[in-house]
Amino acid sequence: MNDGVLLVDKPAGVTSHDVVARIRRGLPKGTKVGHAGTLDPFATGLLLILVGRATRVQRFLMAQPKRYETVARLGYTSTTGDPEGEIEPGDMPGELHLPTGVITQRPPAYSAVKIGGKRAYALARAGETVEIPERQVFVARFDCEWRTEDRAAFVIECSSGTYVRSLIMELGDAYCVELRRTRIGDFDVADASEERLISLDDALAFMPAVELTGEAAAKAAHGVAVPGSAHGTVRLRDEDGLIALAEPRENDLLKPVVGFRA
């Protein structure tokens, strides 16, 4: 293994950090390992593990849209929005309103959002009142697959930063009993395998590629802007593969922002 992305199907009962630590132990000492998007301990599903220089592109992979499957318990509340909180009986929701499009939501108090440099869940568990600012997210799909007695199953496709637990809690008295992430961008949990390392170039294939040769390729490898235009982040490549990720600048230039040759 050198640099790339592993698709891992995280089981319930372990943290995303636990998965990173386990994989790091199996790699040469000093190998950088990270992930692109936390899953709660009770949740299962797709976790992108970043190996080597793939850790440099974490923010780009985290920004990809997500797909979730969740089962909710209706007529009950949970202080955390999941089975790990304090469960209390409540009112059974009637007709469910499933919002889509741009919506405003507040992440749950028991979340990994940082408040004053500390994780919200740590503050909440310490008994402190946690007030997390609202944020706008985009929900492309929110479908109820089935509903019976006090259970209902949903499929949700949403932007990065969306909290499924908040979506379910806002249905009324309800919380998530199961949560599974099935897709991140073009990656599907069905393809998860810890034996196959996806190359950086392939993992970033959702970005347009700009092919360079000669002097332009050499400049890009040293972080120097090269001629070209784009509407967002692009991959700069040459015959040897990926050189850098670049962003557009004035005067039709592409400025490398993440390099892979050094």
UniProtKB/TrEMBL annotation:
Enzyme class: isomerase
Span of domain Pseudouridine synthase II N-terminal: 29-164
Catalytic activity: uridine(55) in tRNA = pseudouridine(55) in tRNA
EC number: 5.4.99.25
Coiled coil: none
Active site: 40
Keyword field: Isomerase, tRNA processing
A GO term for molecular function: RNA binding
Pfam families given in the database record: TruB_N
GO terms for biological process, alphabetical: mRNA pseudouridine synthesis; tRNA pseudouridine synthesis
Xref: Gene3D superfamilies: Pseudouridine synthase
Family: Belongs to the pseudouridine synthase TruB family. Type 1 subfamily.
Functional note: Responsible for synthesis of pseudouridine from uracil-55 in the psi GC loop of transfer RNAs.
HAMAP family hit by this protein: TruB_bact
UniProt name for this protein: tRNA pseudouridine synthase B
Organism name: Solirubrobacter pauli
Organism lineage string: Bacteria, Bacillati, Actinomycetota, Thermoleophilia, Solirubrobacterales
